[in-house]
Amino acid sequence: MGSEVPPAAVTIHVTGFKRFHGVAENPTETIVSNLEQYLKRKGMPKGFILGSCNVLETAGEGAVAPLYLTLKSAVKSLDSESSNLGQTIW
Fold first, then answer.
1. How many Å apart are CA 8 and CA 81, to the nearest integer?
2. What superkingdom heads the lineage (predicted)?
3. Which residues of the chain have pLDDT under 50?
C-alpha cells in the first residue's frame, strides 16, 4: 500500500582481532581493515549501514577498554537518533 513505512536500516558493527600467539596474521584483521574501502568501491547493500569497523587486541585485558569504547559510542549514537531505529548487529 502507498502509506507503508519503509523498513528501518540495519546497522552493522564489524570487529576483527589482531594476531595472537602462534599466528602470524589474523585474517579478521585484514578483512576488517579493508572492509570500509571495499564497501566504498562496491557499495553497501540496500537497507544496511556500516556503523563501525574495529580491530582489537586478542589479549583479554588489551581488548576490554577498546571494546567498551566501541559499545559506548554505539549506545550514544542510538540515544541521539530518532525513535524509528532499525536493528543493530555486532
1. 12
2. Eukaryota
3. 82-84
Please state, in angstroms and rounded to a whole number, the distance separating the CA atoms of residues 81 and 18: 32
Angle at 24 between CA 50 and CA 29, to 5 degrees: 5
- Residue 1 C-alpha cell reads as 500500500
**Torsion angle of the four alpha carbons 55, 57, 63, 67, in this order, in degrees rounded to the nearest 10:** 0
DSSP 48: E
Residue whose C-alpha is closest to residue 47's, from 2, 86, 80, 4: 86
Which three three-digit cell numbers place residue 50? 556500516
Percentage of the chain with pLDDT > 90? 31
What residue type is assigned to position 46 of the chain?
Answer: K
CA distance 15 to 10: 16
Residue spans of the domains in the chain: they are 14-89
The whole-chain average pLDDT of the chain stands at 80
Please tell me what DSSP assigns to residue 78: H
